[in-house]
Structure formats: C-alpha cells, structure tokens
Design goal:
The complex is a heterodimer of chains A (264) and B (451). Chain A is mainly α and 264 residues long. Chain A is built from 12 helices and no strands. Classes of the chains: A mainly alpha (264), B alpha/beta (451).
Chain lengths: 264, 451
C-alpha cells in the first residue's frame, strides 16, 4: 500500500491533464461554458435566499445577516464535497474501459473527480469575494491565513471518502443511490443554512461528530463572522483525523484494487 | 537477459451465483451476509501454472482457441490483472495494444486525446509534443486532429489509438489481436512498424488467431489450451501441434454431429410406418440419382437392402471426418440384404455446404449390372485423390433398384471436412500445374497473408 501511495506523485502529469480534460469536456457543447461553474452555486444561492428571506422570514438570528453571504460560505464548499462524492461513486464503473484495458492506476479516477470539483470551488471564490466586498465585510488577514488550511483539510477528507465510496461501489452498485440520500440528510445536519448557535445542547454534541460541521463553521468564522478564528482546535483535530482517514481510505482502495478489473 | 518471465502463472476468476448479481448492499446488511456474499460461489481457473520466458529482442506469439486464456495471460503480463499465484516479471517499459483508444474521451479533440492518452501510457507531456506530428501522420488524421473524437469513424479512432500506443516507444510491446482494425494499407503499415521494432531489438508479445502472422513473425510461440500451456518453442512446430489439435476436435464435433443426424433419422424412420415403402413418395422417374436432390435430410426406403453403416476411410483404412485436399478417401458402405436380391444400384453423391452437388454417380450409370446380393456385404467407393477445395461437405449414399424404387437412402447424414493449405476457390480442383515460357519469370511468393 505504501509503495503505491508513494508512487502517486508520479502520476501528477496524468492527474493534471485528466482534470483539465474533465473541465473541458464538462462544458464542451454548452452555450455558457465555464459560466456554469459560477451559475450553479449562484442559482442555488438564489433559491435558498428566496426561501429563507421571502417565504420563511423572521426566524433567523441577527448574526446571520446578510443571510445570502452567510449561506454562500457554506454552500460553496458543500457543493465541492457532495458533487465529488456522488461523482466518485460512479467514476470507476464509468472508467471501466481504462481499468480493464489499460495499465492504469485506478485511484487516479476518484482523485481527478475531487480535484476537478475543487477547481469549480475555486471558480466560485471570486463570486464569494464579490459578495464580501459588496457587503463590506471586514476581513482579518490573520484569519485568512487559516483559509488554505481549511481547504486542505476538506481536500483530504473528500479524497478519503471518495476513495472509499468509489471502491465500494464497484461491489455494491446501490451505494450510489444510498449516497445521494445520505448527502441530502448530511446537508441538513450541517450548519450551512442555519448557524451553529441555533442548535440546542444535545444536537450540538451530535453535530460535533459530523466532520463537515467543523469545515462549515471554519469557513463561516474566517469569512463571515467578525472576531478571531476560535474554531482552530477543532479544525486541526479534523485535519489530523483526515490524514488518518485518508490512509484508511487508501488502504481500503488498495485492498480492493485487484478486484476492479474483474468487477467493473 | 529476459524481457518477460512468467513463472507458474495461475489465474482464478470468481464466478458468482446468479443470486449474487441481484444482491445489494442493503440486502447484504439486512441478512448479515456481507462477508459471505463476497466469497465466490464458484471459481474458474483461467490459467494453470503457465510458465514462459521471452528473451529480450525476440517476438513471441501466443495462440489458442477462444477462451483458452491467451488474453488473460497478456493482461497478467501487462499488469492489468494480477495472477492469483505465480509471478510475472517484465523488464522495461511496456505498451499494451489491448484495446485501442481505450482512454479516449469522445467530447474533446483528437489532439487533446493524443496528449492524455500518451501521458496515460507513460510519456511525459514534452515527449508527446515531440512525437505529436509523427503520431498524427502515422494515424493519417492530419485533417481531423482538432475535431472531437466522437466524430471519428471507428477506423479513425482505432488508428489514432494504435498510433499513440506504438509511439510510446516501449521496450516491450504487447499486442492482442488488434491488427484486424483498419484497412489493408493500415495493416501493412502496422506490420512494418512491428518489423521496425524487431530490428531495433525490442520485444514483442503477440496474442493472435492469425497463424500465418505467428509463423512469419515470431521467433517462438506458445500454445495455450484451456488455461494450460500445451506446447512452446519453434513457431512452426507449435502451430503444427495446434492445427492438428483443432483438426481433431473438429473431427470429434463432426462425428458427434453425424451421430446425432443418424439417431434423428433412425427415430424418424421408426416413427413412420416401417415396411411400408409408400410412406415415402416413390420416385418413378427412372434410375437417376434424382432423389438425391431432395433438400431434406433423413433416411428412407423399404430396407430390402439396408445400408447399415457409412464410413469415410483414410489411406490406413481408419474412419475419419477431416481430410486434406488430395488425400485418398474410401467411402465404405456396409449393407445387408435379408433376402436374395438381384436388382440393386449403389449410389454416392457429394454436396458442398451450399447444397451444390459436386459429384454424383451410381453403379447403374457406370454400367455395372447387378447380379446377386444376400446377407452382409461391403461396397467401397474408392477416390484416389479427393480433389475438392477447402470446406465442409455432405455425402449421400443410396441403394435402390434400377427404376429408382428406394431400398435405403441416406440423405445429408454424413459430414466431412476438407482442409487445404492452398486457399483456392470453387468446388472442384482439377489436377493441374502452371507452366511459363522463359520470359515469364516466377519465384517463391513473398506475399502478405491475410491476418
């Protein structure tokens, strides 16, 4: 396993060109092209803003104002996370030809999926920045230094789960359907459209077990809330856990690797 | 120095029972059978302790029937699957021509696909750029290289895949039956490329059904049958053994087919009213073999004289079903007459697979008058040289009286096969030779055989 893991950097060029291909191919033939990378989160934001400010106003605490911005801080990374996982659940089966007919390091496929979605996440950041400037949110440089740490933690966490999901789906095809329901549930179990402060005691303790809670809260504290970044202990703990999870995910993937060529 | 070393390679494929295919994670969890379901219900040994070595710089061919394990062997060498036991060591960079263009993405251009495919096959970006023009030229796709690959014809697609794979400049090239793609011209180009590889001291491993290719190209060959190495070494010897074996199994399947046809005819005859010749419409057109042109197979007749057995014998009097063109063949009819008969005609006809009568004759036509037959007897129709072209033939035999009243007809019940090294056409090969005046000079052919 470790030998395979250390060989991974050799596939840099391959991963890079596949990510580029993925991005190019995704919007090939569409009229708006790369604009969709901006449009998708923007539309989602519009829908939620409409629902929570026009249809269901008044239940939000004042701290979440401006609400659109608050939500955007959580939705953007969530889209990266959930899209990566749902695509990863199909990526080995869709790439079956490569696995069966070409000597190809299979882990490249889920990795490319996660990275391509990360690029979409990055493309959404200028919109977020535009919102931040529009609402004149004061940004603290010291806090912003934590931003790459949050992104890296999320990358590791997403990669770990993508490796596990992609390899298990080869054997259990219905994991794909299971996952889409799980992701919906997960979304609402994460403080994205509501602040963590609204959650009562027991729920809060349960939500602390949800790794994405800490990512969402970190993004919100760094980008949205004033004041120092107080969640860093949780974030570093999650980072450490993600490293371990990544090793575990890679281990699972590596163990199942030999079955891919026969099962996909 | 060996380029490829395969030692005791076995590959066990797992086959899951039918229920496994519908099993889902949910049901596995519910019934608690997650682990149990992951265990195979049945296993299939695709390769059994196959060993071979390919010295550097040689061309090695693997032949065998469909499903014999050739491609599995190749995949083990390529590293796409791992052998269940044993090991494969490959020294040097591999490029596998197993499925051409396997990594292509249909939406993006040929140009981008060349780069990605090249990188997938182990080149760096710079190496691909350096070889790019060569690749495009080889694939003959200069005009279309910027079009999305989904607009390519399948031939163009394969050509591009082949061009990329061959320009990876591997030390070891694995080829799995991919030369069937492309037109004649492209096939020749591929062969020339292989020849160039050989000249440059590269190692090639070919899996193919094309025996001429192996005979002409390979330094050594391996014949895998049902997962086991049956013979290896000199390609001519290996192919000889393989062809003989294929002939034998053809022989066996023809014999089985014959037995089935005879059994079928016997039950059909038993079902009809025995002893009533009128059960079959009588042919009163005279003593011609006209009855033999009935297209349905079967057996009929009054059995006053019965043909109890029909066998095709080779030169050693051994019953066979597969003959080489030009072989001597004897058609032996074993017959029985319950009572003393004086009016009888024996006939034989040969039909090809299209139902065309290649030859038909009988004793009456050849002016042999019948005198007497009673009890058991044997009639031999001796062909000194079976001058038929390659193909499958049916032989009909009959015994009837001079007016065509059938005693026993065997219609399309006996099958045999003629094999030939010359792929000439038609239904009849007259004894012949070519002669040339001195100004027309001929030598041994240097022809590219169809692959």
């Amino acid at each position: 396993m470790l030998r395979n893991l250390t060989a991974l950097p050799r596939y840099r060029a391959l991963i890079q060109s596949l990510v580029v291909r993925e991005l190019k191919a995704r919007y090939r033939g569409s009229v708006l092209g790369f604009f969709w990378s901006f449009a998708n989160p923007l539309l989602l934001l519009l829908i939620y803003s409409f629902v929570f400010t026009v249809v269901l106003p008044g239940t939000r605490p004042a701290e979440t104002e401006p609400y659109a911005l608050f939500m955007f801080c959580g939705i953007l990374p969530w889209t990266w996370f959930s899209a990566s996982l749902s695509e990863a659940s199909n990526v080995l089966i869709a790439g079956g030809n490569l696995i069966k007919k070409v000597l190809f390091p299979a882990e490249v496929l889920p990795i490319v999926t996660v990275l391509a979605n990360m690029v979409h996440f990055f493309l959404g950041l200028p919109i977020l920045a535009a919102f931040l400037i529009y609402y004149r949110v004061p940004l603290n440089v010291g806090e912003l230094l934590w931003f790459p740490v949050v992104v890296f933690t999320q990358l590791l966490l997403t990669l770990s789960l993508a490796l596990i999901v992609s390899s298990l789906t080869v054997h259990f095809r219905d994991l794909k359907d299971l996952l889409s329901n799980l992701l919906t549930f997960w979304f609402f179990a994460t403080p994205i459209i509501y602040p963590m402060t609204m959650v009562p005691g027991l729920g809060k303790r349960l939500m602390d077990l949800n790794p994405f809670t800490h990512l969402a809260v970190s993004y919100q504290e760094i980008l949205f809330y004033d004041g120092p970044f107080g969640h860093w202990k949780w974030l570093l703990a999650l980072l450490a856990a993600s490293v371990l999870l990544f090793l575990f995910g890679y281990f699972v993937f590596d163990r199942l690797r030999d079955s891919f060529a026969e099962e996909v | 120095m060996n380029a490829i070393e395969a030692v005791d390679v076995s590959k066990l494929y797992r086959r899951y029972a039918r229920k496994r295919q519908f099993a889902t994670l949910k049901s596995a969890l519910v019934s608690g059978s997650l682990i149990r379901d992951l265990r195979p219900d049945e296993t299939f040994l695709a390769l059994k302790n196959v060993s071979f070595t390919v010295p550097r710089g040689t061309t090695y061919g693997i032949v065998g029937r469909n499903g014999s394990g050739k491609s599995t062997m190749l995949k083990c060498v390529a590293g796409i699957t791992k052998p269940t036991s044993g090991r494969v060591i490959v020294n040097g960079r591999i490029s596998a021509l197993i499925e051409l263009g396997a990594g292509f993405h249909p939406e993006i251009s040929g140009r981008e696909n060349v780069f990605i495919n090249g990188i997938m096959l182990g080149l760096s970006k710079r190496e691909v750029s350096r070889r790019f023009d060569e690749i495009v030229e080889f694939a003959e796709l200069s005009d279309f290289i910027d079009a999305p690959v989904k607009t390519y014809s399948s031939g163009m697609y394969m050509r591009l895949g082949f061009a990329v794979a061959i320009h990876v400049d591997p030390d070891v090239l694995l080829v799995d039956e991919v030369l069937a793609v492309g037109d004649e011209g492209f096939t020749h180009k591929c062969l020339d490329k292989f020849a160039e590889f050989r000249r440059r001291g590269k190692t090639i491993l070919i899996v193919t059904h094309s025996l001429p290719l192996v005979e002409r190209f390979c330094d050594e060959a391996l014949w895998i049958d049902a997962g086991e190495a049956r013979a290896s070494g000199d390609p001519r010897r290996v192919i000889g053994a393989y062809v003989t074996d294929v002939g034998q199994s053809e022989e066996a399947s023809l014999a089985a087919g014959d037995a089935r046809a005879k059994a079928h005819a016997a039950t059909a005859a038993a079902a009809g009213d025995p002893g009533d010749p009128a059960a079959e419409p009588l042919n009163t057109a005279g003593a011609t073999p006209a009855d033999m042109f009935r297209s349905t197979e079967g057996r009929w007749g009054s059995r006053e004289i019965e043909v109890t057995d029909v066998a095709l014998l080779d030169v050693d009097d051994q019953p066979r079903h597969v003959f080489q063109g030009g072989d001597p063949v004897t058609v032996r009819l074993s017959a029985r007459a319950a009572e003393r008969m004086t009016d009888f005609v024996f006939g034989v006809a040969i039909f090809n697979a299209d139902g065309v009568c290649c030859y038909g004759t009988n004793t009456w036509l050849e002016e042999l008058g019948s005198r007497e037959f009673v009890g058991e007897g044997e009639v031999r129709f001796v062909i000194d040289s079976l001058d038929l072209t390659e193909g499958t033939y049916k032989i009909d035999v009959a015994v009837h009286n001079r007016d065509g009243y059938p005693y026993d007809y065997h219609r399309l019940l006996h099958t045999f096969r003629v094999k030939s090294r010359t792929k000439d056409v038609g239904i009849y090969r007259p004894k012949h030779r070519w002669e040339f005046s001195p100004s027309v000079r001929m030598g041994a052919a240097d022809r590219r055989e169809p692959l």
